Every structure is written in structure tokens, then in C-alpha cells.
Amino acid sequence: MDKENALDAFAALSQSTRLDVFRLLIKAGEAGMLAGAVSDALDVRQNTMSANLAILARAGLIRSQREGRSIRYFADMGGLRGLLSFLMEECCGGNPQMCQPILDELSCAC
After folding, report:
1. How far is CA 108 from CA 25, 26, 58, 77, 88, in A?
2. What positions does the domain HTH arsR-type occupy (predicted)?
3. Which domains does the chain have, with CATH numbers?
């Protein structure tokens, strides 16, 4: 991930509802959630939720899969790992290998 992508991700997460959505989708794991269920869980109107989901998708933080007339959303763990790696790539006084255990622990099989 480069600086511009990281800025897009942080901008997407800097709004309360979008941060809640992202955390909810991380919690949902590989099952993901239908768009309507995300709206219901967070008590947000569907048209407002649609705009927020689009922003998170453009930032590379979530992905979607069409299921008939519905859309299922998932946290994009690759996007999250990319953001965390970007933040830590020059950590520990220029010895990023010292931070590898942290990145390994944050990695999951999602």
C-alpha cells in the first residue's frame, strides 16, 4: 500500500458510521453480511448505508459479492493488512523485521 491508498483508507474510516461498518464486517468474518443486515444492525437508512459502503469499497477496506438481488459485504483483510503494513514498514528504527511478530499476530486466516 502506498501513501495515497493509506490516506484514502484513513479518510474512509474517519467517519463514525463507516468505522462501525468496518468493525462489524470484521466481526462477521468470512460469512460477511447482507447490505440490509448491516443497515439494520447499525440502525442506518439503506440509502445512507449504500453511500458509506461504496466509500469503504473504493478505499479497499471491504469487498462485495452479489447474491441474486442482494449484495453481501465482507471486510477485505488484505486491505487491512496492507494498511497496517504501511504504518509499520519503517518501524523500530529502520528494522522492520523487529515488528514482524506484531504483523504475524495481527494476521488471520480470514
Report:
1. 14, 11, 23, 8, 17
2. 1-95
3. 3-106 (1.10.10.10)
